[in-house]
From TrEMBL:
Gene3D superfamilies: 1.10.1740.110, alpha/beta hydrolase
An example Gene Ontology biological process: homoserine metabolic process
Organism of origin: Rhodopirellula europaea 6C
The keyword Metal-binding belongs to this UniProt entry's keyword annotation: no
Quaternary context: Homodimer.
HAMAP family: MetX_acyltransf
Keywords, in A-Z order: Acyltransferase, Amino-acid biosynthesis, Cytoplasm, Methionine biosynthesis, Transferase
Disordered: annotated span: 1-20
The protein's name in its UniProt record: Homoserine O-acetyltransferase
Segments forming domain AB hydrolase-1: 67-353
Length: 363
């Protein structure tokens, strides 16, 4: 699935650089791990026998655990939202998390878990299937999970950390879906819900992009039915194409024209099998290939499907039912040039909350 231009860690219209340029698959030096050995029932049936959660924290939890903020990442993200010190790797939200920054780690205890189904430490398709006699990875047999299942895994982490109520839950794109699901399932779980560039469900156009992305991955000759982990080659071509498509969805027409039109016929040459006739092609080839060095194709399929299945309601009445019991303040942020998560979808949530007389701010 694809993050909008306002997604966590993705570029704005004014800056088409991507955090992919500095993100790698290097070990996460500050990652913490906890394994919950009880089965996790899944929303669409079945269960995971156990769940491992990889997460990172910044700041200090106060005595009554009232200063905790949950940061939920987008599809291509991980637990490393921000640097921990000057020697640490860059995070995907360095400009927002840290001492004196909007999410101020001098005052707040920030928690960012890698999502269930991901590929950066939490239980996902690349892990050994406990039901397999020879420890074969789940691969394409990883259970079909939902945003609700991701939230349930995060709830286990919150309980483990002794956090009864979040000071805030915040996220964009897929992360925004998570924070909305938190409030739907646990109406008093947070004092503030901040949903950025997201929606109550994907529109049909966004679903169509996901279908294309999954088709690109699953028809790659090296996909091997999802069991490619012990192969010499992986479905990197399909994954790179999926990522290229993703980049297009969060760049506005205006931003792309400003970036690529001046040197349209003078692309930067890189080592790539992909077309580079135009400057936009060179850029997409670079971003697609870079992505394959740090992300797993099965996780992309798993998380994009979870995003597609997410549906809090397509009408004001349904959304009012969804958020009727919510007790938190809401902040919804959208961007006029965002055509993956258009502002109209955020306004649908705002209108439903306003009709319920909830405390909501829209920007």
């Amino acid at each position: 699935m694809f993050e909008s231009q306002a997604s966590m860690g993705e570029p704005s219209n004014e800056d088409l650089s991507s955090t992919d340029d500095v993100r790698t698959d290097a070990p996460l030096a500050y990652a913490k791990y906890v394994t919950f050995d009880q089965p996790l029932p899944l929303e669409r049936g079945g269960e995971l026998p156990e769940v491992r959660c990889c997460y990172e924290t910044w700041g200090t939890l106060n005595d009554d655990a009232s200063n905790a903020v949950l940061v939920c990442h987008a599809v291509s993200g991980d637990s490393h939202a921000a640097r921990h010190d000057e020697d640490d790797q860059p995070g995907w939200w360095d400009g927002l998390i840290g001492p004196g920054l909007p999410i101020d780690t001098d005052r707040l205890f920030v928690v960012c878990p890698n999502v269930l189904g991901g590929c950066r430490g939490s239980t996902g398709p690349g892990d050994a299937d406990p039901t397999s006699p020879d420890g074969t990875p789940y691969g394409a047999n990883f259970p079909r999970i939902t945003i609700g299942d991701i939230v349930e895994a995060q709830k286990l982490l919150a309980d483990h950390l002794g956090i009864r109520q979040w000071r805030a839950v915040v996220g964009g794109s897929l992360g925004g879906h998570q924070v909305l699901q938190w409030i739907n399932r646990y109406p008093d779980a947070a004092k503030t819900c901040i949903a950025i560039a997201t929606s109550p469900r994907l529109n049909s156009q966004a679903l169509g992009f996901d279908v294309i992305a999954r088709n690109a991955i699953q028809t790659d000759p090296h996909y091997a039915g999802g069991q490619y982990y012990d192969k010499d080659q992986r479905p990197d071509t399909g994954l790179a194409i999926a990522r290229m498509l993703g980049h297009i969805t969060y760049l506005s027409v205006e931003a792309m024209e400003a970036k690529f039109d001046p040197d349209r016929h003078d692309p930067r040459q890189i080592a790539s099998q992909f077309e580079q006739r135009f400057s936009i092609g060179s850029y997409l080839a670079h971003q697609g290939q870079k992505f394959t060095t740090r992300f797993d194709a099965n996780s992309y399929v798993t998380l994009s499907m979870a995003m597609d299945l997410f549906d809090l309601g397509g009408t004001r009445l349904k959304l009012m039912e969804t958020f009727d019991e919510a007790t938190c303040d809401f902040l919804l942020i959208s961007f006029s040039s965002d055509w993956l998560f258009p502002p109209a979808q955020s306004r649908e949530i705002v209108n439903a909350l306003t009709a319920l007389d909830k405390r909501v701010t829209y920007a």
